[in-house]
Amino acid sequence: MNNDQWWLAALGRTIVWARLRELDAGTAEVLDSDGNTLSYDSPDTARAALMDAEFAALDGMDAEDAADRGFALDELVVPYAEDDDRLRALMVQTLPRAH
Fold first, then answer.
1. Among 12, 18, 25, 92, which residue is least crowded by beta carbons within 10 Å?
2. Contact call for residues 15 and 95 (beta carbons, < 8 A)
3. Is residue 61 part of a domain?
């Protein structure tokens, strides 16, 4: 069974998503916003790479964390598609202007 975690980076009102997938073998893959699947020897290594790229885990993000990044949590919609090819087009989202 795969364990997916969503990570994001904010560039103004643009949200760039990454999906970290922990695999049964103890390794991990990250689907990046370009649709590339990057392989890592462990989930910890994948998380470190995401943090180095200034991504933050959606799980555990609170309203203050979101506000610090320029958006509200309720504005976020985690990308969903039937397969990774379709998902690629949804990995960068531009949020409407804040009121």
1. 25
2. yes
3. yes
Q: Which residue is associated with the tokens 């959606």? A: 58
The answer to whether the beta carbons of residues 17 and 7 sit under 8 Å apart is yes
**Residue 99 falls within a domain, yes or no?**
no
Assigned domain for 29 exists: yes
pLDDT in tens, 27-67: 999 999 999 999 999 999 999 999 999 999 999 899 999 99
- Domain coverage including residue 25: 3-94
Q: Do 18 and 7 form a contact (C-beta atoms < 8 A)? A: yes
Is the confidence at residue 99, as pLDDT, over 90? no
- Tell me, what DSSP letter sits at residue 32? -
Provide the Cα torsion 43, 7, 35, 87; round to 10°.
120
Q: What is the residue type of 86?
A: R
Total domains in the fold of the chain: 1
